[in-house]
Design goal:
This protein is α/β, with parallel strands linked by helices. It is built from seven helices and seven strands; from the N terminus they run βαβααβαβββααβα. The radius of gyration is 17 Å and the shape is globular.
């Protein structure tokens, strides 16, 4: 484990991320549609020569943000020492990211929400209220692909799922390479029967890899 005194946590704003892709699935369902779509995106990235890794947040033991605000001084989350502490070096090091979540009650899953909330530590704030802010990850050429899966058949019923991933990542300084809303898919691994969707996911991964090369 790289602890917070490791060089990668120092001067994050001056870091030059590697042309690698970190993919995260927020689904609680192992080998379900979100996991399969993540694998397709990463496969597309690998075919373009990008190093990639998939993380399944259900397997990471981590806590939600508790609003302790220690990160305003420490510039990394020191309020918890948990599974996210292990993920931070990979987040900092990777120029590309993939976020995949099913729609739970018009929004992303609790796992994905907790993950995004724990990225709060990468903001810099000034002492005024309301605070002005910047991102330690900004201006580093970072890119992200976003995928959402919904049982229903339109964006209205998908609710805030895409927005809940896109807006925080944009605020952190990531450019959105592409979004893939997947509709009318619910049964476990049903997306396997949709080669067009799988091809779209793979092409997004390829586009992501090209954008960070």
């Amino acid at each position: 484990m790289r602890f917070f005194d490791h060089a990668i946590f120092q001067n994050i704003s001056d870091h030059h991320p590697e042309p690698s892709v970190l993919g995260l699935s927020g689904s609680p369902r192992k080998n379900g549609n979100s996991d399969l779509l993540l694998k397709e995106v990463l496969k597309g990235a690998k075919q373009q020569g990008a190093t990639s890794e998939g993380i399944y947040l259900r397997d990471v033991q981590f806590q939600p943000c508790i609003g302790c605000e220690k990160c305003r001084k420490d510039h990394i989350c020191t309020g918890h020492k948990d599974g996210m502490s292990l993920l931070y070096p990979d987040i900092i090091a990777s120029k590309g990211m993939v976020l995949v979540s099913p729609t739970h009650n018009y929004n992303i899953t609790a796992w994905m929400k907790a993950f995004i909330d724990r990225l709060y530590c990468f903001y810099n704030f000034n002492p005024k209220r309301p605070s002005g802010w910047s991102s330690q990850l900004g201006n580093q050429g970072r890119k992200v692909v976003i995928v959402a899966v919904c049982e229903q058949d339109n964006k209205k019923d998908m609710g805030f799922t895409l927005d809940a991933m896109r807006l925080p990542m944009e605020a952190l300084g990531y450019d959105i390479v592409g979004e893939l809303p997947v509709f009318h898919i619910f049964d476990k691994a049903k997306v396997k029967e949709s080669p067009k969707i799988l091809a779209q996911a793979s092409e997004l991964g390829a586009e992501l890899a090209r954008s960070i090369s």
